[in-house]
Amino acid sequence: MADRGRDQPGERRIDFAQLRREVEAAVMLPDFAQVTRRARWRRARTRLTTVGTVLLVVGILGPAGVVADLRQTTVQGWVSRPDPQRPDAGPSGSPTSSAAAQVTLAAAAGVDLNHVYALVDVCVADSCSLQLSRLANSPGNSGKPIRSDLLRGANNRTGWLDSVRLTALSDTSLLVSGLTDGDRWQYEPVDLGSNDGPPAQSQTPPVTTADRTVQRTRFGKLEAVQARSGRLLQLPSQPPVSQPAVIDNLAPAKGIWVTGTEAGQLAMSVSRDAGHTWTTQSLGLPVAQMSSFDEPVFASYTGMTAFLLLRLADEEFALFWTVDGGRTWHRQPGQLPWPQPVPVGAAYGLVVRPDGSLLAWLASSPTITYLESAEAGAQFRVTSSGPGGPVFAIPDGYVELGIRPALSRDAATWAPAQVSYTGPGG
């Protein structure tokens, strides 16, 4: 990356024009074969079959205005549906059109609850626009998204898009990624403010436990974003695992957690000294037994007790947990009491509440099932107290991407959050 100013070796300011060129040149395809990627796409399309007729009927019978109904569940997100009591039938800034609009809350991320952003995919007929909007409890949204036509671009609104992900590099720096046409992982940085930071220091600043660790490409090198300036810094060392994937929903002070593989098995690598040293532990699960369609779901509140929930190749689920910061892992016996049969490819998630209880969810259109556990996952029970949509953790709270998105500090009480979007080309 081209440096600016008088930055010292190992210290770089985020140059977003260069960052775009760099991630495009360094993009790494998933290591599984093209036929597997195509199978994933066909699988996702199959999941749409049962709701396709519903969408068609809603589009024909719905009133004039936007009709946002259930569509594909993506890796991080769910689908926003309008309030039937409102004539505009949509979140703030929603498009008004005689054609049905399918509105998907595809992903959310933030460094804290004051800086939470969502990716909203808005499709009218075969024209789609991936848009970035801020999620906020107060009515501060302008009625329009912050950015539109991400990943696909304004000239390719009919392009295929899957596995959309949003990463918060800082409170003003975001990275949007997803699988696009041609089975290509595409990355698009978004700069919402100045990242110049203070003048260059006389010495290269060390990475500290206050700095966030990020990846700018899939399975790529881990880097640190300096908390006070937004500068990119090199970690002292990389985790000793293959296919590393950094966990980005924990506060930096709770350690750097990275999933990966070691000797053909699922492994977790943890650093508590800003990347100087790593503790790596195999979970004893062969990669061949894991689903090739899903990434493990990590959940922790304290940074010492943590959980890893994943789907297996036979469509069953496995839950692992640690109480010593990742030094040892144990697999919980039994199965989660999801309604049977579990739909193939149904999205799922897990979070740890501040009181230590677990909240798991399974999205099987058009319903969502919640499980709770107060016994560290040894026993789960079905609960009806869920917020209404998939729940994801951010460093100091939780985001719910449901019919009406919401924010929370304890994953128990929720405050409505506004999200803005417009129609493609709007």
End-to-end distance: 34 Å
Mean pLDDT: 78
Radius of gyration: 21 Å
Helix-strand string: EHHEEEEEEEEEEEEEEEEEEEEEEEEEE
**Residue ranges: pLDDT <50 for 5 or more in a row?**
1-12, 24-98
Give helix % range.
under 10%
Q: Structural class, from secondary structure content?
A: mainly beta
Provide the spatial order of strands within the biggest beta sheet: 1-11-10-9
Instruction: Find the count of extended strands (DSSP E, 2+ residues).
Output: 27
The main sheet comes to: 4 strands, antiparallel
| Form type | globular
How many helices in DSSP terms?
2
Estimate what percentage of residues fall within beta strands.
35-45%
Structure characterization notes:
- The chain has helices at residues 16-26, 34-61; strands spanning 11-12, 78-79, 101-112, 115-124, 127-135, 161-168, 173-180, 184-191, 212-215, 222-225, 232-234, 242-246, 256-262, 265-271, 279-286, 297-300, 306-311, 317-322, 330-331, 347-352, 358-364, 367-373, 381-383, 391-394, 397-400, 406-408, 415-416.
- The chain is globular, with a radius of gyration of 21 Å.
- With 426 residues, it is mainly beta.
- It is 9% helix and 35% strand.
- 44% of the residues are buried.
- The strands form 7 sheets. Strands 1-11-10-9 form a 4-stranded antiparallel β-sheet, with no helix packed on it. Strands 2-3-4-5 form a 4-stranded antiparallel β-sheet, with no helix packed on it. The chain has a 4-stranded antiparallel β-sheet with strand order 12-13-14-15, with no helix packed on it.
